[in-house]
Amino acid sequence: MEKPVDDVTEEIEDEELETEETEEELGSDVSEEDEELEDEDELEEEDEDEEPFIEAKERVSKKEKEVDEEDIVEERFYTIPLGKVWIAPRKKRAPKAARIVKSFVLKHMKVQLDPEDEEEEPERLVIDNEVNEKLWSRGIEKPPRKIRVRVVKDKEGVVTVLLAEGD
Questions:
Q1: How many CA atoms lie within 13 A of 90 on its CB side?
Q2: How far apart are CA 8 and CA 1, in angstroms?
Q3: What distance in Å separates the CA atoms of residue 167 and residue 164, rounded to the nearest whole number?
Q4: pLDDT value for 139
Q5: Torsion-angle region of residue 157: left (phi > 0), alpha (psi -120 to 50) or beta?
Q6: What pLDDT, on a 0 to 100 scale, did the predictor assign at position 156?
Q7: Distance CA 64, CA 44 (A)
Q8: CB under 8 Å to 85, separation ≥6 — which residues?
Q9: Is 110 in a helix, a strand, or coil?
Q10: What dihedral do alpha carbons 90, 92, 93, 96 form, nearest 10°?
Q11: Which residues contact 153 (CB under 8 A, 6 or more apart)?
């Protein structure tokens, strides 16, 4: 026998009531979750006020900005040939390349490491870590044939060798 139509509608109405009750329960859970998320967001905002973790590349860019902010007396771009490095024995090439970069910059920027007068301070030469890493990038035996650098001299006489931006 078939069920009367009234019984079917009563079952449908019962199911609707059950779904409404579950939605209300979920709604209260969702609001609690929203409050928890808002609390987490507030904590994250407080953490943002503290100094965030800085990647290595960002630190390097800050170094360059500090150099840029100081009064730059002179700035030059050089392509330093390192072909003579390949004459040296295989296990001494990268250190030789570093010495060639240093002597090249000393010569072309007219840096005096030893002061002639006792009153003068010696000028300093600083080779940036990126330049050194570029020289050693392929190991001790295979330094690059040439390297492009940016050399900056500030008002205090400190000469800084930085890797050119395209490299």
A1: 3
A2: 14
A3: 6
A4: 96
A5: left
A6: 85
A7: 30
A8: 93, 94, 96, 97, 100, 143
A9: coil
A10: -160
A11: 72, 73, 74, 75, 109, 159, 160
Query: b/e map of 5-23 (b: 16 or more CB within 10 Å)?
Result: eeeeeeeeeeeeeeeeeee
Q: Give residue 33's pLDDT.
A: 54
Q: How far apart are CA 52 and CA 63, in angstroms?
A: 17
N residues, the chain: 167
Cα–Cα distance measured from residue 98 to residue 128, given in angstroms and rounded to the nearest whole number = 11
Q: Is the pTM of this model over 0.70?
A: no
pLDDT number for residue 62: 59
56-163: CATH superfamily: Ribosomal protein L31 (3.10.440.10)
Would you say 130 and 60 are in contact if contact means Cβ atoms under 8 Å apart?
yes
| Residue segments in the chain with a per-residue pLDDT below the cut of 70 | 1-70, 115, 117-122, 167
**How far is Cα 55 from Cα 121, in angstroms, rounded to an integer?**
35
Q: How many CA atoms lie within 13 A of 34 on its CB side?
A: 6
DSSP 161: E
Structural element, H or E, at residue 6: helix 5-49
